[in-house]
Amino acid sequence: MQALRLLMAAAVASLAAAQPVSAQEDWPSKPVKIIVPWPAGGIVDARVRLLAARLSRALEQQVLIENRAGASGTLGAQAAARAAPDGYTLLAGSFVDQAMASSLFRSLAYDPERDFVPIANIGRACLLLVVNESLGVSSLEEFIALARSRPGQLTYASAGIGTPQHLLMERLKKLAQIQLEHLPYKGGGPALQDVVAGHVPVTFDFAPTAFAHVQSGKLKPLVTACGHRIDIFPQVPSAAEAGYPQLELIGWGGIFAPKGTSATIVQRLNREINQIIVAPDVRSHVAMAGSTYPLWSPEEFAEFIRNDRPRWGEIARAAGIEPQ
User: Which of 37, 138, 152, 251 stands the most exposed, by the fewest C-beta atoms within 10 Å?
Assistant: First the structure.
């Protein structure tokens, strides 16, 4: 009997050894795709491409970017939510598609809380109010005076409904009692390009993407909207210094996976991304732009999002945004 038990045990061990290694232990065995729900050229796209290049080396597999813009980031989020939870499709999400979307749309094809697993925070960034140089203003005070003299005649560009650009300008309109017409785009890149070209006179934009256009003289920065001056534009006052302390809004972004993705994969990605974030050159790059990268675990990031979601609903209501 003892010999039979030993024989059976050996057979079971042999069978187990013959089984293929699980997918999560093998991961990644092919390229990983990150869906960016905004057009190329914006701050999210630029930041995720920087991350993807480093992540490719860390994972020893190519990390690809797929831009799926539209509907304030929710089209790309929807595609990611429907992907297989195998670690090969990720989402570069933000507070727009993960926290504010339910306040923007009456019905969503995904549930931000139910359909995604937060992996890692990839930054909070500072925005600037920038105008085309042809507008002829050099300060927030001059811009407000011009807008008051031409009620309803000036337009402003945004990355879409519910984005920081939209929310900040709607807040400025209320605070300064000015009238501006909103022109929503599919992302910050196209919106900024039309301001640079002079088709639209003004927008809020992230410091890194506005930098080259300010340096060329095509754009003039008027104030920052993050409560302080930033290294990349030390001459630009904060909104508080310009007399509008309520004009402050800092959004956030992160990497997400479809619900059901292995905890082993989520933890591996969190570890690799946080290691990339603390690299001196990456830290220096984001600090110059007034950005911060909290080094959270997946659980800490998830808790932050749960606590932050109600705030964005309040912001949307205060801006007068009605669900579409």
Answer: 152
Q: Which two tokens stand for residue 162?
A: 């519910």
Cis omega before residue 28 (within 30°)?
Answer: yes
- Domain boundaries defined on the chain: 32-123+251-318, 127-224
Q: Is the pLDDT of residue 169 over 90?
A: yes
User: Whole-angstrom Cα distance, residue 137 to residue 155?
Assistant: 15
Give the CATH fold of the 32-123+251-318 domain.
D-Maltodextrin-Binding Protein; domain 2 (3.40.190)
The structure tokens listed for 39 are 């057009």
The listed CATH number (3.40.1360.10, 3.40.190.10, 1.10.340.30, 1.10.3720.10) that belongs to domain 127-224: 3.40.190.10
Look-up: residue for tokens 């993407």?
209
Q: What pLDDT is recorded for position 245?
A: 92
Per-position b or e across 19-35, b if 16+ CB within 10 A of its CB = eeeeeeeebbeeebbbb
Q: How far apart are CA 110 and CA 218, in angstroms?
A: 40
User: Are the C-beta atoms of residues 156 and 202 closer than 8 Å to each other?
Assistant: yes
Using the predicted structure, report yes or no on whether residue 195 has a pLDDT greater than 90.
yes
The whole-number pLDDT of residue 290 equals 64
The confidence score (pLDDT) of residue 10 equals 44
- Evaluate if pTM is beyond 0.85: no
Q: Which of 86, 84, 44 has its CA nearest to residue 66?
A: 44
Among the residue ranges 1-15, 23-37, 227-241, 298-312, the one predicted with the least confidence is 1-15
